[in-house]
Amino acid sequence: MKRQSVIVIMLLFAAGFAFPGDGRKATPLKEWIEFDHPKILALLNHINGLDAYTVPPLEVRKDENYAGTAVDVEPFGGVRPYNEFFLQQMEYTGPGRAEPEPEHLDTVKIGFIGPIMSTVSVATGGKSHEETLGIPMLQGARLALEQWNERGGYLKRKIPFELVVSNDNGLWGASGNEIIKQNYKDKVWAILGTIDGANSHIAIRVALKCEVVMMNTGDTDPTFIETNIPWVFRNIGDDRQQSYLLIDYAYRKMGYKMLGIIRASNRYGRFGVREVRDSARRLGKPVPLEMAYQVGQEDFALEIERLRKSGVDAIVHWGDAVEGAKILNQMRAMGMKHPYLACDRCVQADFAKIAGANAEGVVCAYPWNPESQTKLFVKFRDAYRARFGQEPETYAAHAYDGMNMIIWSIQAAGLNRAKMRDVLAYMPEPWPGVTGDIQLSACLDDVGDVFLAKYENGDWNYYSRTDLDIPKGYIPPRDRVSRPDIEIARK
Amino acid sequence: MMRVIIKVSAAVLAVLTPVAAFAEATHASPRGLPYVYTKWKHFTIENGLPNNHVFAVRSNGNDLWVGTENGLALIDKRQSKVVKVWQEKDGLPFRSIAGIDVDKNTGDVWLGLFGGGLARLSGDRFDHWHQLNSGLVNDVVYDVVMEHENVWCATTAGASRFNPKTGEWAIFTEKNAPMEEIWNYAVDYDPQANKVFLAIWGSGVLEYDVATDRWQEYVDPDGEMEIDLYRDDGVNHVIVTGVTSIDGAMWVSSYFGGTRYDGRSWLGLPDIEGGLPSLFNNNVKGRSAHEAWFCSDKGAGAIVDLDPETWVQYVRDGRGGRAIVKQRLKPEDKTLTTVEVVETGVNAPHSFIVNADVEGNDVFLGTSHGLGWGVGEGYYPRLKERPLIGAAPKADVATQR
């Protein structure tokens, strides 16, 4: 009976929100996966009404290839590894599904953690530098939450959602304390955040022990998801995906002979550029020089001079927009006309403003296409403009999608953290996001398309792999451990 | 990654069966059988625990200390009952306890508070150290251990060492130790080797030689997150969750399997060979150079001998539970074979094992839904010839990758 009533409620939700509120039978704008999707109903059938000891017989997803990695950039290619990870979906086998929904609640609290207030930065030892990313992230999350409250909040009980906001821009470890507070004191149902790679790792360690969904919308560190934690989701294309595209563009499309790297001397720079460096080496074109600079540095002459002497024919920068622009300016001032490739953080107003005319021709990897002009995006953009008087950017858009995914999981599964995790982990189709369709891999990472942003005629233009006809290496349709010998030898 | 799929006959033999008879069925006989825990005691909120989510367990003589997500409990082993509980209203400085150790000299109980720093329970009084009143590097403490008169804390932002006699603190981070990442997860002290071992998420295992003040690091040799290139080349992944050093052997757990190191050779202990119940392991507790208890999300995996490699998996199965004995019958076998299935009734109260401790003949399993105490009456280490006490799988026992 209880199960039936839940299904009825879900059907009502679907009927009430799949169409505009004025009664017109217009083509519905699909903003979330239907609550009455047969696979969602089947999933709920499996996970509802369980005792603490029963693990539901859910089929785990298996991928045949990790992160869409081409055979010629796989690590230790040509060797069959003993074991390969992240191809099989992690299960949650704990007792959480048996937890009943609490009776007395005034609001449904959802945590947010991100760099929103200026403080001391570990990277620089001085002023922090990620608020320009964190504030839009907060705004995107807040907008999604407010829109759900306008629709009625937590529909099953007609209570509003409440955002519990924490700043994570302190010393390393501060994010752990904040997640603890959100979990034990605020009793949030899920957490969205954060951007800094170190803080994100710290946060998910706590989330794992506390058993709470952690939705990451802004940390592109590849290792973030490579931890096998069944409570962690990411809805933004990571630096691995972006690096693969950048490398394919540089070597397979443009035919550059040798890349030089200059990067921030922090975790973002160190881990972000790793796949560029490794892929280059595996393609037989190793990076001869990788220069690191301190965040906040003003003079890059030493690093640039060494790059020039190394004989590289293109430069890759991985760091923030301000330093990226200053390096570019100094390179040009020193007479270097090398193509300048960079990470997504350089696709910001600051970069173009500081670099001026030098920005022309710069190519950056980018996790999504903000010019997609889908109806979903246009609706979001208009709402964001109206609410905040700004244009939405990467961190706002992904946070908007992430918060929608979290709230959708609550509407679908009820107030039970384990079941929320389940519906997110077993989404029957890609999430219809404003940033594009969000396709999660077996390890719950976004493996959807990433793009290149080119600065042309004073503006950024966005291109897919197809748009630019960028070749890609062969991707075998089998995992590496059980791949036929002939495929191993192909390397 | 492929999984081991083990098909075990459901037939249960009710009578004791000689080991010799088993040889005929499987074409190779087990070279002795291990001790199997068949007597278990359970503790949940129904019989006194303050919370079912058990994060830490430490046995000390007649005292069994249990750290939960909402309070500390003391079980008197002679009475087999919870005799005292502390929560925040009783003076416990923070609700969640992730690590416990006992000072053998003073009897003081040291608590790693998961988000609350470090506490000492002494004479029914709590003392409290945290980021704002001490040299503790971070309040999210995952584990504590005593080393001589020092207390080591594995925190989410480095390790701290505290000498309560002198009040001196030392902090170990990437600044003064070979930590590529500083996210400490577990800490162990091996008095025989006089070394402290840190299990670090992102930095493998760090070994600190107390006598020489030197560090030795053990990381995944292939350096890659998505593969384990060779089974026996070192720690199987850089994300390490637990470590124990005992009798010259170091046991390591991770979310990617287990590993053992004897100072000369590494041995990979992956789930895909059928011994370890799961890839995902929260911790490990070594009992000897031959025996260690891995805390997986699919039951406890006790490796009890290396020659031949033999495991006992303890899993809860609905209202019952089983001990599954696995052995590598021939050295060239790629997977282990089920050689015995013992219906134990409920063993671990839940198959999601978080922590473990061993003392004397007994074993203690902290799970996400209660504490299990395996009573080791007649315990013996490693293997010996004995009759089957459970079911012998039929010849259709099959393993496949």
Name its key features.
heterodimer, A: 491 residues, Rossmann fold, five-stranded parallel beta sheet, 15 strands, 37% helix, 13% strand, globular, B: 401 residues, mainly beta, Methylamine Dehydrogenase, Chain H, six-stranded antiparallel beta sheet, four-stranded antiparallel beta sheet, 2% helix, disordered C terminus
Radius of gyration of chain A equals 23 Å
Shape of chain B: globular
Structural class of chain B: mainly beta
The level-1 CATH class of the largest domain in chain A: Alpha Beta
3D structure, described in words:
- By secondary structure, chain A is of the alpha/beta class.
- Chain A has two domains: 271 residues, 3-Layer(aba) Sandwich (Rossmann fold); 134 residues, Response regulator (Rossmann fold, 3-Layer(aba) Sandwich), CATH 3.40.50.
- Helix content of chain A is 37%, strand content 13%.
- Chain A is built from 15 helices and 15 strands.
- In chain A, strand 2, helix 3 and strand 3 form a beta-alpha-beta unit.
- In chain A, helix 4 packs parallel to helix 5, helix 6 runs parallel beside helix 8 and helix 10 runs parallel beside helix 11.
- Chain A is globular and about 70 Å long.
- Chain A starts with a helix and ends with a helix.
- The N terminus of chain A is likely disordered.
- Chain B is mainly β and 401 residues long.
- Chain B has a domain of 279 residues: YVTN repeat-like/Quinoprotein amine dehydrogenase (Methylamine Dehydrogenase, Chain H), CATH 2.130.10.10.
- Helix content of chain B is 2%, strand content 49%.
- In chain B, the strands form nine sheets. A six-stranded antiparallel sheet of chain B has the order 25-26-27-28-29-30, with no helix packed on it. A four-stranded antiparallel sheet of chain B has the order 3-33-32-31, with no helix packed on it. In chain B, strands 4-5-6-7 form a four-stranded antiparallel sheet, with no helix packed on it.
- In chain B, a hairpin with a 4-residue loop joins strand 16 and strand 17.
- Chain B is globular, with a radius of gyration of 21 Å.
- The N terminus and C terminus of chain B are likely disordered.
- The chains are: A alpha/beta (491), B mainly beta (401).
- At the A-B interface, strand 1, helix 4 and helix 5 of A face strand 20 of B.
- Strand 1 of chain A pairs antiparallel with strand 20 of chain B, so a sheet runs across the interface.
